[in-house]
Backbone:
């Protein structure tokens, strides 16, 4: 470590691999002071302006908010809150286009500015040295500060790290062309920046603090040297201008000579890197209780009549910033030779190498926005050409020569086009810092960085899907295990209950018996009772049926006898009357008639008696079945025989009725024939 400090004191630094020297173009805005703009009519605040997760909403549509009021809260360590940049009313909460290369839409808060710029109540800290480490970290987290150098990593996580930090490196390089936001901030707010560095020193307690700044910023270098001249621990390191010196790993390499391995963070090597703009925001938050609601933005390019750096409220639409700096659409009325209108001038968020074109000027400024570039066609003709001039790779290897991360850009591009994510991971795609040096030197004009950005987005999306699938699988397995445990617990509970019941049943009572024997005896009695009742129910219908049949047979036989007796009596009374006149003449004939009637009457009585005997015989045949009906099998047989008996009994009754009817008809016929015979004989 001492050797590193000695080299720095001597002005000797290390070098990183690759790098380029593009035209600086910083003089366009470097000489003008930072301008304070008037309030826009509306602000658009994306809920997520950092790496991580968005916070939970604290407001609804229609709420009036004050300047500095928290609009979201952090429910996750990787969530950073956003605050109201000025006072106004929440007019909408909906998805809107954000600052992203793909033109994504995300949930945003729309604030209608009331123009009063009314602050919420603030608590000014007169002496931050009296605050504890945790109090400072909480203030940084509540202020919603994320890395303002471009990455947007939550600052409160970055500073809440393990002890034994060797180097705190302040990144003041600002190496990309056109951008002078940090340069002007260091010139005008060097004291506040140094206060922020002191606060970080109190939290991290590093052995040394190194401020890395390129030699193309003489005013900023002088301001920082003046602000830190009494602090022995801080070293202002003036570095040669080379792109991308401002890369985190590249700056560490230049200042300390250490290489940060792929997939690891600088903190694992005892190094923490913070941007100068982040230091200013930390100072504002801890000392003045001002959350991150504004930042310096460079508005540059030949398409602007008044290019300069401005203090822009977060959420300010790009269109409003362009209006304030005299953006002129020099091609809107011009026609090409073919007669078709020429394309509109491009607007780039960021620098010419790492920035991206925005298709909608309603895109808002966010915490990581440091530049809006509006170039002219003469200044950047490639930005106006909508048709891609990309040709096949000629394998010149220049992209590999200038890559500061020592990657293989051409192979990364081939794998990205083939969507071979496994190969991209093996080639360390995520070590790429999107500096654009490879695309800058490519003779085939291949937009290599665009391929890498798309591939990174696809891999991240697939990783999120894989994480969701793993979580779903874990939840399913946990549920399955829980249900299995519950089933086992239920079975054990039932076994214990059954054992307890069995033990209770087997306990002997005072009379020497057990509950189980008593229950068994009760069950036996119930079964016997049910069996007896069943036999009784099956026997009763058959006996009653036989009794009814017998009674009907007797009644019918009695009726038959009564009818025969009455018929004989009627015939007996008619004979003397009919034969009074001729009694003396035909005594023999009368005697014959009387004998005939008596015979017929006798036959009728015999037929009735026969019918009665048949019915009685049929009923007597069923008595053994009723007497022997005991078992369940015999019950079924008896039921079947009862059905047969009923059929036979019915036939017997029908036969008796037919016999009686025939006897009656014969008697009636003979009664009608008797007078006729007597008349004939008398004549």
Residues:
């Amino acid at each position: 470590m001492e050797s590193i400090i000695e080299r720095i004191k001597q002005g000797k630094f290390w070098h990183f691999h690759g790098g380029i020297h593009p035209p600086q173009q910083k003089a366009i805005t470097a000489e003008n002071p930072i301008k304070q703009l008037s309030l826009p009519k509306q602000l658009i605040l994306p809920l997520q302006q950092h790496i991580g997760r968005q916070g939970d909403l604290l407001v609804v549509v229609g709420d009036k908010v004050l300047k500095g009021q928290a609009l979201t809260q952090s429910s996750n360590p990787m969530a950073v809150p956003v605050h109201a940049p000025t006072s106004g009313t929440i007019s909408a909460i909906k998805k809107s286009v954000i600052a992203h290369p793909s033109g994504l839409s995300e949930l945003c808060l729309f604030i209608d500015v009331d123009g009063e710029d009314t602050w919420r109540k603030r608590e000014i800290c007169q002496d931050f040295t009296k605050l504890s480490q945790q109090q400072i970290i909480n203030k940084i987290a509540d202020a919603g500060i994320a890395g303002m150098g471009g990455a947007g990593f939550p600052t409160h996580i970055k500073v809440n790290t393990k002890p034994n930090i060797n180097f705190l490196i302040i990144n003041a390089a600002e190496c990309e062309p056109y951008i002078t936001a940090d340069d002007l901030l260091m010139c005008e707010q060097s004291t506040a920046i140094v206060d922020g560095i002191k606060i970080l020193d109190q939290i991290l307690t590093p052995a040394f603090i190194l401020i890395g700044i390129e030699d193309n910023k003489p005013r900023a270098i002088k301001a920082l040297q003046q602000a830190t001249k009494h602090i022995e621990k801080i070293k202002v390191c003036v570095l040669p201008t080379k792109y991308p010196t401002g890369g985190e790993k590249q700056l560490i390499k230049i200042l300390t000579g250490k290489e940060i391995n792929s997939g690891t963070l600088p903190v694992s090597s005892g190094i923490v890197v913070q941007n100068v703009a982040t230091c200013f925001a930390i100072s504002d938050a801890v000392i003045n209780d001002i959350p991150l609601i504004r930042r310096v933005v460079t508005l540059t390019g030949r398409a602007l009549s008044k290019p300069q750096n401005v203090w822009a409220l977060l959420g300010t639409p790009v269109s409003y910033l362009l209006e304030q700096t005299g953006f002129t659409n020099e091609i809107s009325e011009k026609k090409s030779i073919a007669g078709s209108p020429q394309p509109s001038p491009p607007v780039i968020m960021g620098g010419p190498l790492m920035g991206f074109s925005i298709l909608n000027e309603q895109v808002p400024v966010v915490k990581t926005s440091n530049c809006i570039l509006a170039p002219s066609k003469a200044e950047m003709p490639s930005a106006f050409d909508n048709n891609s001039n990309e040709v096949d790779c000629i394998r010149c290897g220049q992209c590999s020569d200038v890559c500061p991360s020592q990657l293989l850009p051409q192979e990364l591009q081939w794998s990205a086009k083939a969507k071979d994510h496994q190969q991209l991971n093996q080639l360390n795609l995520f070590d790429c810092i999107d500096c654009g040096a490879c695309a800058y030197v490519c003779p085939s004009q291949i937009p290599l960085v665009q391929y890498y950005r798309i591939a990174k987005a696809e891999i991240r999306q697939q990783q999120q899907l894989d994480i969701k699938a793993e979580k779903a699988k874990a939840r399913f397995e946990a549920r399955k295990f829980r249900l299995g445990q519950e089933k086992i617990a239920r079975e054990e509970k039932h076994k214990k209950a059954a054992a307890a019941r069995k033990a209770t049943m087997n306990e002997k009572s005072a009379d020497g018996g057990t509950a189980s024997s008593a229950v068994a005896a009760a069950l036996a009695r119930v079964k016997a009772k049910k069996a007896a009742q069943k036999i009784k129910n099956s026997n009763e219908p058959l006996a009653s049926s036989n009794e009814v049949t017998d009674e009907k047979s007797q009644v019918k036989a009695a009726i038959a006898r009564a009818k025969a007796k009455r018929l004989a009596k009627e015939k007996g009374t008619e004979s003397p009357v009919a034969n009074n006149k001729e009694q003396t003449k035909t005594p023999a004939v009368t005697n014959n008639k009387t004998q005939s009637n008596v015979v017929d009457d006798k036959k009728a009585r015999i037929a009735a008696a026969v019918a009665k005997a048949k019915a009685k015989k049929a009923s007597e045949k069923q008595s053994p079945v009723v007497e022997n009906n005991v078992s369940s099998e015999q019950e079924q047989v008896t039921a079947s025989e009862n059905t047969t008996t009923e059929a036979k009994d019915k036939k017997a009754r029908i036969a008796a009725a037919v016999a009686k009817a025939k006897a009656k008809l014969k008697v009636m016929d003979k009664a009608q024939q008797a007078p006729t015979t007597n008349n004939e004989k008398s004549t």
